[in-house]
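Hi again,

Forgot to attach this to my earlier email, sorry! This is the prediction with adenosine monophosphate bound. I've pasted everything inline since the attachment limit keeps bouncing my files.
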Amino acid sequence: MDNTQAVKQHSDSPRLVVVGSIGIDTIETPKARRQNILGGSASYGCAAASFFTAVGLVGVVGTDFPPAYVDLYKRLGINLEGLQTVEGKTFQWEGVYETNLDNRRTLRTDLNVFASFRPDLPASYRKAPFLFLANISPDLQLHVLDQMEKPQFVVADTMDLWINNTREDLQKVIGRVDLLTMNESEARHLSGKKALLRAARMLLGMGPKYVLIKKGEHGSVLFSKDSIFLMPAYPLEDVRDPTGAGDSFAGGFMGALAANGDTSESAIRKAMVYGSVVASFGVEEFSLERLQVLTVDQVEERASLFRSMMRCE
Ligand code: AMP
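Structure tokens for the complex follow:
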């Protein structure tokens, strides 16, 4: 069963709503440079979630957005009622990776149509039990969160730009989510603490029940007030483009949680397996090129191999 067939079984109303960037990216890795490819935190997040649950996208594109990318979202079964097209240019981002692929420099971020995006959520989105506030301005994340009726589980992601420029709004977001996710350097930056455990404690003190710290090829760590859970990354021989790995992780994770409906810590740990697995596929190619041809069976097969790699008793 391929992903397209799988999503046909999803109901129309999204169980998971994702708001985040929809971008046109230009990316340079040590091996290749690709211009004007589909990116954005919401693109990766929704594509990853589409393997597990009915997902609705909240985002905006300009009139320059290629129709082929909208078709791709449709083929993935993503609900596009919350996607707006407005006069102007689509969000653009440009980044360059160093040889080890863990270090990345942002060369350009043009918010364009995102700068003034104030969506009214479709009625069917407001009822969704799961919400992923993917990386975008905290102000927009709050605007979406305010319109949700009674979400069961809310996750937020962020990045340096927002930590530097809109910290107050970001703190409001963090105070209202169940789980905060960010990468290691951002967690240190936001908390002002060098040791990861101290950083996580500080972030937990801001309100969320869980803090999930992404460590790139070294996996991720889930912190709660009284537990720590370590998850490695699925080992790969070749990474073509790590862009969006965190968004795919969070999208796959939220999709798996939403499909199951259980938000206990044990369910969260199990969903992290799916987040890691989908992210590992995503980085095998640029943009959504791997996720768009991935099948649910391949996801399950890698998930079971991954679990066997972690078994130690
Ligand atoms: P990640 O590798 O998880 O940081 O995600 C990279 C994706 O996020 C790219 O496809 C970019 O289009 C998008 N992106 C980069 N910077 C920002 C930003 N400041 N806000 C929202 N999305 C961004």
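The longest helix spans residues 265-282. The mean pLDDT is 95.

That should be everything now.

G.
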